[in-house]
Design a protein that fits this description.
The structure is a homotetramer of 307-residue chains. Chain A folds into two domains: 3-62 and 198-301, DD-peptidase/beta-lactamase superfamily (Beta-lactamase), CATH 3.40.710; 64-194, Beta-lactamase, CATH 3.40.710. Chain A contains 13 helices and ten strands. Chain A has helices at residues 3-14, 28-31, 65-77, 98-102, 113-123, 129-144, 153-161, 164-175, 183-194, 200-206, 226-239, 245-251, 288-301; strands at 22-23, 39-43, 49-53, 59-60, 150-151, 196-198, 256-258, 263-268, 272-277, 280-281. Chain A has a five-stranded antiparallel beta sheet with strand order 3-2-9-8-7. In chain A, strands 4-6-5 form a three-stranded antiparallel beta sheet. The first copy, chain A, has a two-stranded antiparallel sheet with strand order 1-10. Chains A, B, C, D: Keywords: Acetylation, Hydrolase. Chains A, B, C, D: InterPro entries: Beta-lactam/transpept-like, Glutaminase. Chains A, B, C, D: This is Glutaminase.
Chain lengths: 307, 307, 307, 307
């Protein structure tokens, strides 16, 4: 299989669709991104990264960061995490508060906003959000073997400035005692990790361990137990794309996570990790062209986990 | 891998849990099933079926039948099916009507009751529910290479007698024009296919094609296109266990479908198909001991699709 | 106060609004009603009926009939009724099924469709829907002192033919054991009483007892206890207009009930009963011009119960 | 009618029920109130106040204050208020957030928490919550002819300390642009007016204008237009007791407002204003014994607006 060739073909294949979808516009920093951008990268266990298009340009990973905070939280607190967040698809939008009321402040899963705030809350000791973010950055830089990875602080500030809905979710959970830290402390870390800027290449490389049972196949470092790794993949499959998670599983058949910055991360167990970037979103907040590109990747490689 | 040995070990392993859970009691025919029953069968592409416990005793497959009607409907009408039923997890109970109201009579997916009634409706031509059921029986007998497979008509009659909730769902969809046939015609077929009686061995054999891209590996018969086969597996992963679908993916990591008769079907792409039977259910209607047995199977075989 | 003059002034006042709103079109018999029709009638305790416009032309009273079946059911079964139906506003549309699921088949109040079906079910003994309807007709004719009142059977048949949503509601309640009679028996009576045809004058006269503590002020006949009469008025105030009941109380300040045939009944405790008819409806199913006319009536008479 | 006698009889009548219900315990200042307290007062247009029991002991009026802020806001901004808050019963608990999501941040009515926060927000100019509270206090003292009325600042601080759920509601509305002031500014005024401490006698006197078309019958001062006064009464009737508003209308038949401090205010158009206090609440947050006392009052006086 010639992945270098395949990613080039995919760039050509999506060409007629470039610019489709609606760029997220709730903060200026996202709204002004060029909608014609497109990048794809596939990291493989031999340490190679096959990429094409704008695969080396950092973008705001937004919700994709929730996968990495989930991994960190499971490393840190283990299965106690599941006392405070579920693992079922929500059947609702990413920022819905309805189920929180019916289910007494326990979010459905760690990949919707409410759940990710709870996960982030677990990463913060003694109210020190900065330390939690530093740890996350250190870990991501190590995984990606790239010390240049950083947060886009303009985006982080904008997230906070426009974060009323997330504040509502956080206060709602706080009212049920489901946050350990002050609401603004937890959100301060949450807004920052959503503002992480990574390129497709960095993202695919940083997530490679998820395709190899929790062990980085290049460095040999064990990051998670095989069981926890499988479970993160399962949660991505069930819940990674809000209320179009089922459609993503149906069309692409890989565990994945999308972000409103236009990125999608997809894990191919035993094979590698793929990342795409195209800012235009569908109604559920998943990159339209990115999903097309991943469909094309699976069609060419046969990488669906479903046969 | 010695599957014959593994299934025996699993019978021993679940022994302390036998009888756990609550047997479905909404119809007498289910309520009087012995809660201590347990069977497991794994069908493999070489035509073998490795089984243990009560694996040859037919039980009421109930909702597991929805997988086979979905396959038939996709063969018959293709992607037009998705005009009338979605493919997203519902986040709700199997018989919930709430989303139908918000989403104007279009059920979330083909594996909740409302969605399965729509799928069944597609199988019926000219109001002839009997012909649809005959076709389903013929197909199942062929897939399972066992002409003795049949419907338990006592169960079918009981289903209909106690079918008020399903009638409500069907009339609700009818009010939005989402049924082609008369409500009682569609339900007549629905109640009968839910009353199919298969053993674990028959069930695993009948579903084997789903593990091999839609082609029966024993007979070589192509039943579905590879793409449709993958998609059915994806829907089982996302939606196969109602509001504990996410937990099933998390714990077991295989596409599957549970029924309130206590059966679970699990597909292992490229390897085989497994079926378990234990009547006691968890709160969401999935067999408790059956899920434990499948966890044990995955632990011993490494068969999770997630790594 | 010269009511004869006032009703004439109101006809003039609403003239510029005639034809506003959207005529119910779910059955042909309603859809073909002339949208320019307008009638108003006010029955007073001296036996007079002050009317203007099309006040003597019978129209389909639809949900207004629920007030009379409620009165009959309270006479028949007393407070046991409240075991099977609530008395809270639903905050939802007239035909919503969502709350039924959350509240296990007990409708919120007797004036939404589900609640009215339960009320009707109480009126039927031994499965004899015909007898229940005969009783209702006899009672209405007596109250209105007009033996010509009847059901429009064309409308009743159409209601049944298009009654899928009501069938869904009824089966849903049946699934929780909240119907005594067969679903089709209960609905047969329900569809017929909704198809009652009364003129504004007949309607106002028939409901006059509700303004006088349950006693007909003309004949002196006691129909209900004062307490039950007050309670029916309270329920009309809280729940008489589906999800615009609050707005009706806010604007008009009288207990009332609207029907999708364009009629509105309003009770003025101690003064009389008013009925209007104008087929165009607002989004919640209340007659637009009828509500304007009642606002004008209250402005001229000071009849709001709120001061 | 001897109201002095009637209120004494009512104290005797409720005696066997004293202490029933559950005292609000979400803040210590409420939790430690003696559950055996009971007071009743009826203010009449002649300037008299007929009272019995603990009618002169100030208690935390909590949500009853929402009636006075609503009156003030209507005086200040008029019907523009209805752009940002509805007037329909919610059918939900006082602090529910579900409808806010479905209805894009517009609360159902001014008497649920979310709606009252919006109303309070209207009272605040230039972010000066203190000025808004000073105005409210001045107005209440004038209405009640009692300059000693004040806020219980311990309660206000506790409300704020435990105000996570209200913060969530406020941020949710802010995310839809439905608050003019900063969330904490609006809440600062909201928590303080909920902490107002009035006795039954003060409360009945302060609300007397609502029974007389907006004019204080003792001083002759016009406070509201008759129309706005009627409308406030209508909203109290439809929405004054959260999800048991319908039951209150059914049993008592008067516009009213309950607070979790155990108070209930009831308006008798044309007759007077009544207030009761008994700390034990029913499941919906309305004083159990207070509601019984008002039922007894209406039974003795025939004061129901429904006949």
């Amino acid at each position: 299989m010639n992945l270098a060739e395949i990613v080039k073909e995919i760039v050509a294949e999506i060409e007629p669709h470039r610019g489709e979808g609606k760029v997220a516009d709730y903060i200026p920093a996202l709204a002004c991104v060029d909608p014609m951008k497109f990048g794809i990268a596939v990291a493989t266990p031999d340490g190679e990264c096959h990429s094409a298009g704008d695969a080396d340009e950092p973008f705001s990973v937004q919700s994709i960061s929730k996968v990495f905070t989930l991994a960190l939280a499971l490393q840190k607190v283990g299965d106690d995490l599941w006392q405070r967040v579920g693992r079922e698809p929500s059947g609702s939008a990413f920022n819905s508060i309805v189920q929180l009321e019916h289910e007494r402040g326990i979010p459905r899963n760690p990949l919707i906003n409410a759940g990710a705030i709870v996960v982030t809350d677990h990463l913060i000791d003694n109210g020190d959000a900065d330390a939690a973010i530093e740890l996350l950055l250190r870990v991501l830089r190590d995984h990606a073997e790239d010390q240049s990875i950083d947060i886009d602080y303009d985006v982080a500030v904008s997230e906070s400035d426009t974060g009323a809905r997330n504040r509502s979710l956080a206060w709602f959970m706080a009212s049920f005692g489901n946050l350990e830290n002050d609401v603004e402390v937890a959100l301060s870390a949450y807004f920052r990790h959503c503002a992480l800027a990574l390129s497709c290449a960095q993202l695919a490389r940083a997530a490679l361990f998820l395709a190899f049972n929790g062990e980085d196949p290049v460095t040999g470092e064990r990051i998670l137990t095989p069981q926890r790794c499988r479970r993160i993949n399962a949660i991505m499959m069930s819940c990674g794309h809000y209320d179009n998670s089922g459609d993503f599983a149906f069309r692409i058949g890989l565990p994945g996570k999308s972000g409103v910055g236009g990125g999608i991360l997809a894990i191919v167990p035993g094979q590698g990790a793929a990342a795409t970037w195209s800012p235009g979103l569908n109604e559920a907040g998943t990159s339209r062209v990115g999903a097309l590109a991943l469909e094309a990747l699976v069609a060419r490689t046969g990488w669906s986990v479903f046969g």
